[in-house]
Amino acid sequence: MRPPFDPTLYLVTDTGLCRPRSVADVVRAVVAAGVTAVQVRDKHASRRELLALTRTVQAAVVDHPGVAVVVNDAVDVAVLADADGVHVGQDDLPVEEVRALIGADRHLGLSVSSAAELDAALALPPGTVDLVGLSPVWETPVKPDAGPALGPARAATLATAARAGGLIAVAIGGITLDRAAEAAATGVDGICVVAAVCPEADPAGAARRLREEIVRGRLAQVAR
Ligand SMILES: Cc1ncc(COP(=O)(O)OP(=O)(O)O)c(N)n1
Ligand SMILES: Cc1ncsc1CCOP(=O)(O)O
Ligand SMILES: [Mg+2]
């Protein structure tokens, strides 16, 4: 059975932005402060390094069994580390084949940047993909090749359609503390952040403030 996945505050790690701390030290601090899922992303690491990094992150969340650890891009690493899931983009391995490799019990996320990409995800056999990352909501220096910004209004439209089709929807790209409430108010199930947490002097404090903004954004959406 696929374990539940809580996307409320989804941290995507960046090894360089965590320095001089280790990724595991940052993850250990923030899962105790409201981060609900972690994606291990390091575009510079070798497969061997990513496997070792993933294992350090798994050890860092061991006291938080509800926090899923997902590997970015590398399906082989996800399987070898027995990670909770994997996230792929439109140019990564095809999701049907990723699902065949990871089995039925792991979480699979897919990046979506347009209505056409979302329609294709919704047309997949049920259970292929669990989550769509609506990307990027705003431009971000962390991923300059992410394509044009959706903006919160289009992200809200995509989130509604994704959720109606049974997918978890998360917003990603350019979500700062100042924008977290606006991102949450689009109706997504959660928000993903990199730079709003990884380089912060107090990552746990940043996570706590982001959780407060998510509550504020959700309340504002309900009040509309
Ligand atoms: C939750 C989530 N959404 C989108 C992305 C971006 O994935 P991708 O388009 O494959 O780009 P890279 O992260 O591989 O550079 C993501 N990682 N997570
Ligand atoms: C991995 C990824 N995919 C789309 S935008 C992005 C980076 C998000 O980083 P930040 O939260 O700092 O804008
Ligand atoms: Mg990718």
TrEMBL record:
Protein's name in the database: Thiamine-phosphate synthase
The organism of origin for this protein: Blastococcus tunisiensis
SUPFAM superfamilies: Thiamin phosphate synthase
GO biological process: thiamine biosynthetic process; thiamine diphosphate biosynthetic process
Binding site for 4-amino-2-methyl-5-(diphosphooxymethyl)pyrimidine: Q39, V40, R41, D42, K43, N72, S111, K143
Keyword rRNA-binding included in the entry's annotation: no
Domain of life: Bacteria
One Gene Ontology cellular component: cytoplasm
Chain sites annotated for binding 2-[(2R,5Z)-2-carboxy-4-methylthiazol-5(2H)-ylidene]ethyl phosphate: G174
Catalytic activity: 2-(2-carboxy-4-methylthiazol-5-yl)ethyl phosphate + 4-amino-2-methyl-5-(diphosphooxymethyl)pyrimidine + 2 H(+) = thiamine phosphate + CO2 + diphosphate; 4-methyl-5-(2-phosphooxyethyl)-thiazole + 4-amino-2-methyl-5-(diphosphooxymethyl)pyrimidine + H(+) = thiamine phosphate + diphosphate; 2-[(2R,5Z)-2-carboxy-4-methylthiazol-5(2H)-ylidene]ethyl phosphate + 4-amino-2-methyl-5-(diphosphooxymethyl)pyrimidine + 2 H(+) = thiamine phosphate + CO2 + diphosphate
Keywords of the record: Magnesium, Metal-binding, Thiamine biosynthesis, Transferase
Binding locations of Mg(2+): D73, D92
The protein's required cofactors: Mg(2+)
Enzyme Commission number(s): 2.5.1.3
Cofactor: binding details: Binds 1 Mg(2+) ion per subunit.
